[in-house]
Design a protein that fits this description.
474 residues; 14-stranded mixed sheet; 3 helices
Length: 474
């Protein structure tokens, strides 16, 4: 039996103050100020102060002659800064830990596990004592209205956020002896809109129907990175043929990979055996961040019975599937049937380089032919190695995220029991993918738990669960 020992400790010391003001119960103002000291950073760099200012105007209460269809209305606005430190403990100094291992004592006997130890460093990450807290500045405007005796509600929010000195674990050349280092990256901008619509189409005594729809749209841009560098690799899958990158002037977390080489006039270049020729450099081939996300929830009640269904959806955003790449190379993907004996032939059309002219420029000849089965097998294998945009998919999906069906036992049935209320319900989660645009995989599967969105490599689909809930009050 093996035993391990680990310890981590960190803390945040803070000073916080706030003041609230109101006028005539229709105008409200809140002012705050906070200073944090983060133990995970060097004491010379671990302090940050950030204020906020927020106000609201309840115009429905300020109106003398309120329209009958308007029940409530509020405008809100805020400006706020937030400071944070997202690094784990012991990352700004080079620290050592004990690495338990069996060893041979001087008398030739094996020492038990854990009694002999060697020093190991920060697990391949170069410490950065100069890390400072990140700071995020956001401006927000919002409108909240309730109409038609509260049967319709609209809540709209627009925001603009700018983050500086974000803390990121960046990949570096392994020739240094390390795999990554922690850095403060320059500046990133986010702007977007969030909308929540609520309604009650049916509000009868016996039957009630409530519905809510929410969606959010975010647009971002990397303004600047580390001084002197306009590209930062964040993550890569095990195919090692694409990177999730931050590039200045591009959205957060673009997917970059090799594509098939083309002539100046755009024609595809092949080898003589029909295999695609790889581009000289990586190109941006996608972005894992969706165009917008949302959900639709419907709740029904009929006498004592209740039912609700929640549908989640994501529209846009790209997904690089290492799963489909490997299946194609191994001949297990449906598309790899093309070109086999007895199947539809695989035909390539483009050019092949036949040599160079006197100035060293390539000379191309036309190619348009069917590949033999052997050439087709090589084509699909090299496609996986050289042409990564072939495995970029639309990451949109809609899922039946949750379904519940329950019954509230009537009070007359509980009169002689200790219960005041009693509810029994069936609950199912992650029940179905209603639609998607990528085969063989769950588009919600992700390669990492961080912000490197848009990568798939044999990810496990989400677990479908079923259960019962019994709730009682006394």
């Amino acid at each position: 039996r093996n035993f391990g020992y680990g310890y981590e400790g960190w803390g945040i010391n803070s000073v916080f103050g706030s003041a609230e003001f109101s006028y005539n119960n229709v105008l409200f103002l809140t002012v705050t100020g906070r200073n944090d000291w983060f133990s995970v950073l060097d004491p010379d760099n671990n302090s940050i102060f950030y204020p906020s200012l927020g106000g609201s105007f309840v115009f429905s209460d300020a109106m003398d002659n309120l329209p009958t269809w308007l029940d409530f209305g509020k405008l809100r606005a805020s400006w706020a800064q937030v400071g944070s430190a997202t690094v784990a403990p012991y990352q700004v100094n080079n620290v050592y830990s004990l690495l338990g291992a069996p060893a041979i004592n001087f008398d030739g006997n094996q020492v038990p596990m854990g009694t002999f130890a060697t020093a190991q460093g920060n697990a391949g990450t170069i410490p950065n004592i100069g890390l400072v807290p990140l700071i995020s500045t956001e401006t927000e405007l919002g409108l909240d209205v309730r109409l038609f005796q509260n049967r319709l509600g609209i809540d709209v929010t627009y925001y603009h956020q700018r983050s500086t000195q974000d803390q990121l674990n960046a990949q570096i050349s392994r020739a240094s002896g390390f795999g990554s280092t922690l850095v403060n990256v320059g500046e990133m901008e986010n702007r977007g809109i969030e909308v929540l619509l609520t309604g009650s189409p049916i509000t009868g005594r016996a039957v009630k129907w409530d519905v809510s729809l929410n969606f959010a749209r975010n647009r971002n841009e990397v303004i600047s990175l580390i001084e002197g560098n306009d590209l930062l690799n964040v993550e890569q899958p095990r195919t090692q043929t694409v990177f999730v990158q931050h590039r200045t002037g591009h959205p957060f977390g673009v997917i970059a990979g090799w594509v098939q080489a083309r002539t100046p006039d755009g024609r595809l270049i092949f080898e003589e055996n029909g295999a695609p020729v790889q581009s000289e450099s990586m190109e941006v081939i996608g972005n894992g961040v969706p165009d917008f996300t949302g959900g639709l929830n419907n709740s029904f009640s009929f006498k004592g019975f209740t039912m609700s269904a929640l549908v989640d959806f994501r529209v846009g955003g790209d997904l690089y599937s290492g799963t489909n790449l490997r299946l194609t190379q191994w001949g297990l993907h449906e598309q790899s049937l093309q070109g086999r004996e007895g199947e539809d032939p695989l035909r390539v059309s483009g050019v092949v380089q036949a040599g160079e002219d006197a100035d060293g420029n390539p000379v191309y000849e036309d190619m348009d032919r069917e590949l033999t089965p052997g050439e087709a097998q090589n084509y699909w294998n090299q496609m996986g190695n050289r042409v990564q945009d072939h495995f970029i998919y639309d990451g949109s999906f809609a899922k039946l995220r949750q379904f519940t069906f329950g019954y509230n036992f009537p009070a007359t049935l509980l009169e002689r029991t200790p219960f005041q209320t009693l509810n029994l319900s069936f609950v199912g989660r992650n029940l179905s993918i209603l639609w998607k645009n990528v085969e063989n995989i769950d588009p919600e599967a992700n390669y990492t738990a961080g912000n490197a969105q848009g990568l798939d490599y044999f990810g496990m689909p989400q677990t479908r669960t079923f259960g019962f809930n019994l709730r009682a009050t006394f």
